[in-house]
Amino acid sequence: MTSSTLTAPAARRGSDYARLSRRVAAAGLFDRRPGRYAARIALTLGAYLAGWAVVVAVGDSWWQLPLAALMAVATTQVAFLGHDAGHRQMFRRRGPSEVAGLVAGNLAVGLSYGWWVDKHNRHHANPNHADEDPDVGAGALVWTYEQATATRGASRWMARRQAWLFFPLLLLEGLALHVASVRALVGREPDGRWRTPVRHRAVEGLLLLAHTAGYLSLLFAVMSPGRALLFAAVHQGLWGLYMGCAFAPNHKGMPMPSAEDDLDFLRKQVLTSRNVRGGRFVDVALGALNYQIEHHLFPNMPRANLRRARPIVRAYCAEQGIPYAETGLVESYRQALAHLHEVGRPLRAG
Fold first, then answer.
1. 77 - beta bridge partners?
2. d(CA 264, CA 277)
3. For helices 201-222 and 94-102, what crossing angle results, to 10°?
4. Percent above pLDDT 90 for the chain
5. Count of H helices and E strands in the chain?
6. What is the mean pLDDT of residues 178-197?
7. At what angle do helices 329-343 and 225-251 cross, to 10 degrees?
8. What does the alpha-carbon distance between residue 35 and residue 18 come to, in Å, rounded to a whole number?
């Protein structure tokens, strides 16, 4: 679906979000969870470092390939910590949040924290808006009929088949994130201004260099060149796939507002987001992003509180007559792929 019929009723809109916020605050769900985050950070980084220790211990063996898959999981879990730091879910103050984000993003994962925060904040401000949300801008995939009809050449060929290409393309997402991080740190406008606002550009650059040097040095020190390159391909490919699979269920296939849609903050966030049902395993696997509606309404809410906020938000949306989208994980992918397939339909018909 591309846009439309999203206009909200004018009556009492301005205070709807404030009333919901008061209910959530009364339940204590804005309170920080330092003990829970201390344990999560210790377990996540501990598993990540233990994984690299096992890689070193195994040495030049084909057993490194399943280890590469496990390290893709560990790397994504570390990236989720960077996400939480970017939203100040761990700490109220900017300083500690940035330190956590730089360590998790730049040093451990090889992803520019400053670039990601800038991009992600723009996504949160206008989710699923084709002109304002960088996550649904035209690129390897297109998200609206207008983007599809504007494609040419190889891009048009891909747009016709993009639903079938979606998961294979995610294998390149890790590489794309690394490239985008470097471009954000070095890219300038024609007038010499930096293209992407990054607060600690020099520090980020040094940390990315340290990550790259450490990553390649470790692989080539313990494996033959061929196995080292194969490990990197499996690790980076599956990391990108996992990242894409964690973020795709959240908004893809949901309504895409346009400038004509008159939405207040509450409706803008709820109508464009989708929750994914599941137990604790899904919570951990998706970094609690399966509570996407609650996360978009309260982005600095600690991850552990999102599950408890869900029934409050769902009940309030029912009171206000606001559709609350929630589905299973497989169905969320089906809806996202159906949207991609529908967007490419005019090209196939032509």
1. none
2. 26
3. 30
4. 89
5. 17, 2
6. 95
7. 90
8. 29
Contact 333, 248 (CB under 8 A): yes
Q: State the Cα–Cα distance between residues 244 and 239, nearest whole angstrom.
A: 9
Helix (H, G, I), strand (E, B) or coil at 180: helix
Gap between the Cα atoms of 264 and 85, Å rounded: 27
Token pair for 245: 């699979």
Contacts of 225 (CB under 8 A, 6+ apart): none
> What pLDDT is recorded for position 9?
41
**Which residues, in sequence order, are CB contacts of 128 under 8 Å at separation 6+?**
135, 136, 251, 254, 255, 256, 257, 272
- Angle (CA) 282-286-291 rounded to 5° is 80
- Structure tokens of 46? 């501990």
According to DSSP, residue 151 is labeled -
The DSSP result for 264-287, as a single string, is: -HHHHHHHT--EE---HHHHHHTT
Q: Residue 301: CB partners within 8 Å, gap ≥ 6?
A: 24, 29, 30, 89, 294, 295, 309
The shares of helix, strand and coil residues in the chain, as percent rounded to the nearest 5, are 65, 0, 30
**Contact call for residues 309 and 30 (beta carbons, < 8 A):** no
The mean pLDDT of 228-243, rounded to a whole number, is 98
Calpha distance 33→63 (Å, rounded): 38
Confidence of residue 138 (pLDDT cuts 50, 70, 90): confident
In the numeric block, the tokens 């990391």 are attached to 239
The burial of 73, by beta-carbon neighbours within 10 Å (0-12 exposed, 13-18 middle, 19 or more buried), is given as: middle
Cα(193)–Cα(186) distance, integer angstroms: 11
Please give the Cα distance from 158 to 269 (Å, whole number): 30
11 has pLDDT over 90: no
Cβ contact 263:103 at 8 Å: no
- Residue 246 carries which side chain, given as an amino acid letter? A
